[in-house]
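From the shared-data thread, chain only:
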Amino acid sequence: MERFEFTYPAQDSLPGHAQAGVVGSGDLEALYEPKAGTMLTIRVATSVDGSHGLWQRFFDHLAGVRQLPAGQLDINDFGATPGVARLRIEQVFEEASDVY
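Structure, as tokens:
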């Protein structure tokens, strides 16, 4: 199990907390917590050894194609494909933006 952290410039935080995916399902769990400021901190815990560079490129690309919200994003990965990772992250950001 590897753990690492990334920090990216961000826009305003989203109004709510959110979770997408299921940890331990052979998938990926994403948890978002809004925080004041101008940074998004991403903490990744993954079962895939040697994947730091892949995650770095993934988040570099994501930051280049969308505005990231300020706060903290926790990723618990158990071998999800990049497509599933992107889906879960977009789901958690969408859910956090919907406040009832």
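The chain has a mean pLDDT of 93.
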